[in-house]
Here is the input.
Amino acid sequence: MSASPAQLSLRRPDDWHVHLRDGALLQAVLPSTAAQFGRAIVMPNLSPPITTVAAALAYRQRILAALPDGSGFTPLLTAYLTDTIDPAELERGFAEGVFAACKLYPANATTNSAAGVSDLAKLSAVFETLERIGMPLLIHGEVTDAEIDIFDREAVFIERQLEPLLRRHPGLKVVLEHITTAEAAAFVAGSGANLAATITPHHLHINRNALFRGGLRPDMYCLPVAKREQHRLALRAAAISGNPRFFLGTDSAPHPRHAKEAACGCAGIFNAPYAIESYALAFEQEGALDRLEAFASEFGPRFYGLPLNEERITLVRESVSVPPRLHLNDAAGEAVELVPFHAGELLPWRLA
Ligand code: NCD
Ligand code: ZN
Ligand code: ZN
Here is the structure.
């Protein structure tokens, strides 16, 4: 990477965790991701979820059809694990290059996770298959027990579920998604080559105070929910550490404004429009711009065993003003209103 005060050139990054949605919303949000990233690991929590090779192939076609002309973006699809999923279907999808990974949502942990896994013990045949074929397991790492404080659910998941899982299946290749705690960062750093984690831009910028700044702020609500400042600082340290098992995953999770600003608002932060700018700001604030390229463009593909992107992108040191709201055209040509992450702020780097 070449860094200068005026511009920054990096190998085109990939997004190792994104929600592209479907239908009207897919059309509205896909161009933001495709403009920045070469590839993305696309989450399967649609309604109904992607649980078969056929459903994944059809979804991939819908994504490709919604891409802007000339886009070189490649979606990498994932399979949604349920209590009854057939390991043979996962193995076939992985062998055919349709499924890049499996996604584990604990049942009822987050958006569209009702069909998720109720008990990891029920999936031992699935985990044995993944271990044998080297198919990555991506995990939303939160326990769902109502009696566990919401701010503790990630740390408790690591202790009660993840650590025993990795002991039972030492060969399993796991990505702990969107980590939010010092405990998660330390656990991943202290583990072997088979365990990695993605870090979102919002968890590098906000702590839990952001949810209540000047009133209740639905645009800052996501799962796992942002934690105390000490955790944000631990995530920053992990992101800039140069450890190849921490890499970029935005968890951009768009919900229309009316669904966020509601009596029971949806979890998810829409950060895709300024994602790389947001990461660049965080790395710059840490004096670590020279580490951005490895985090954004090298460590992810290496973990997944994929080639690095050959193209490059340029960030220029020009401030960009993030609009308070975006009106993005959906498939029907109607505008969907979304609040982007960093709404109303000035960001110092702009994607050329
Ligand atoms: C995601 C969504 O809306 O699909 N929401 C979120 O707050 N992150 C689901 C998820 O990644 O847990
Ligand atoms: Zn999640
Ligand atoms: Zn997600």
Observations:
- The radius of gyration is 19 Å.
